Structure formats: structure tokens, C-alpha cells
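Pilot study result, target chain (297 residues):
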Amino acid sequence: MSFCSKVKNELLSLRPPECCKPSYAYGFMLFGRSFSIKKINIQTANENVAKGYCDAVFAVYKVRPEITQGGSVRPTYKAEVLSEADRLKILASVDYGIEDRAIDDGLFLRECCISSFIRGAFLACGNINDPEKEYRIEFSVKQERAADDLLELLAQNGIKMRKTLRNGIFLLYTKESSAIEDLLTLMGAGKVTLDIMDTKIMKSVKNNINRARNCDSANISKTVEASIKQRTAIDYLEKADRLYSLPQELLDAALLRKNNPEATLKELCRLSDTPLTVSGLNHRLSRIIAIYEEMAK
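Predicted structure:
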């Protein structure tokens, strides 16, 4: 299974609340292959995405798109609303063909509805690379107006992406790992977000090891393993908005480690504004890890 399939399967496993179902289905349809009076469909190499599309449409409109399979070498799946009456019913529920916009934000009753809409859009036209190879996430959009509206919506939610044109398709993309993490978190893919954070830390650690290959390998390994656990815990708590609610002594220790990811405990103690012993600092960082492990269960 590709990394992108793993991400989409996690997103499909989420169940949007009642208020979000229309915006989720709308994002899925609007950024599918076609969304017009003539055709409402999606084409994908992921069978689960095709089924998820059908479930999303049925949940809101009680219309069940039909799935067909094609492709002789690599299977492709098309989910399509065949009835013109059903297509008209769906289009009548949104402000279709808005004069100056492609996205009808009237369906966004709450902030969670925006996240669900973006999740549907990503399932329809998104792609993400394996972070072991390259940091990159993108949306492939056929219409420029829809691409511009989505770009603006993402920016309003703190996700900055770039737009480019390739082979007649507008690509919204970013290669910034932090933006990728924020987008996945916004869409609800928490498990994959943590995987990417771990991968990023491991890459950083490997680079540090290569630069310090002349040092004692046993001591490096011990320091690196401890640093990975500490930074994973701190990054998680920060993403979960729990970092700054920690007791002051734990917060100070966390920020000290975060701002000096490569330092040993001894070096961190020297950098501290208040007197600290190695054992005292280690105890505080161990408490942070314990809080993270309890939350991540």
C-alpha cells in the first residue's frame, strides 16, 4: 500500500458529524472528475475512495452513485451519479455556478465543516509523497477558479500553498513539512501526522549522526534515542495545544530541549537560565514523555 493510500484510508475512516456531512460530500464532488449537470463523478485508483464517495453522496442526498471498474493493467474505479434528476437535485442544494466564486461557503455552518470540506477535496484530488523520500502534498484541480478558491480557503486556515500549472491541471502544493503536518491535522489524519513527525526527527537525527560520525557511537546513540523520545513528546503536546499548560518547570525543560535539539543534557543544563542538574533535567523530561504516552494511548 502506498503512503498516499494509507493517508486516504485514515481520512475515510473518520465519520463526519451531522453538520459536516453536506460540506464533506460537496468537497468530494466539487473536486472530483466532473461536477456539472452533464456529469457528477469521480475516477480513482483507490477502490476505498470510490466507495467513500458513494457513501458521502448517499448520506446527504439518498442517491447512490454507481461504481464501475476499468483499466487492463492498473485498475481504476469510477463512481458516477447516472440519473439527470439526481444530478439536478444535488446541484440545487449548492450555489452552483456562482458568478465570481467556485466554492459555495454557505454550507460551512461551523469551523469543523471547513475541515470536512477540505478532507473531501483531498480525497477527490489530493496526493501526498512518502516523507521517507520527499516532503510534498498537493491538490490537482481542473478549474483555475476552484483552485484559487481552495488556495484562499487553505490560507485562511493557516495552510500556505503554491499554485502552478502542469499539463493543463492546476496544482496546489507545498514541500514544507510543517505545513503538511498542519494540513493533515486540519483534515483529521492525526496518526499519519505523528508518523511524519517521527520520520522528520529520524532524518534529523541521521544527519546529525553522519556529521558526528567521529564521536563515540555508543554515547551518540544513547543521546539520540533520548532526544527522539523527548522531541516527539514535545511536538505532540504542542500540536495538541497542551504544551503551554504544563507546569512551569516542565514547560521550561520542554522549551530548552525544543530550542536545542542536538544538545546533551549536560549542555542543556549549562544553557538553562536557572540552575539545573543533569538528573533534575532528565527527571523533568521523563515526566513530559510520560504525559505524552498517556495522551497517545
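One observation from the pilot: The chain has a mean pLDDT of 89. A full batch analysis is planned for the follow-on phase.
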